[in-house]
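Run log, item B.
One chain of 121 residues. Sequence copied directly from the ordering sheet:
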Amino acid sequence: MTGSRALADHVLDLLGPRADVGLAPFFGGWSLRHRGRQIGIVMDTVYARVDLAHRDAWHDNGSVPFRYTARGRTVTVEAYWSVPADALDDPDLLRDLFCGTDHDAPAVPDRPPGVTTARPS
């Protein structure tokens, strides 16, 4: 599996310079880093780091955890969940999913993918 540099660059473009997110190589893909902390990865798709308290909400909204195959077995990395496709066309949603409104917060925001501000989270 290889991470698409073009997709990683697209994510950075959507997030914009104010988000202060950078790229670093990461096991054949790309790490999305905010203030030195990994907040996502780009492999065959884009994944956001999701804290344990919010994983059920991401699952319920159709996201899947990052998986890869090594030595004939599938490994699931529950800390990273797929970003909804519509977020890759919506800079505000993508920024909220990766950085939230408090950029110092250690976790991905409470707002799960696909949930608008009109719905309670």
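Observations after the first pass:
- The beta strands are 21-26, 29-34, 37-42, 46-49, 65-70, 73-82.
- Residues 35 and 104 are 9 Å apart (CA to CA).
Flagged for discussion on Thursday.
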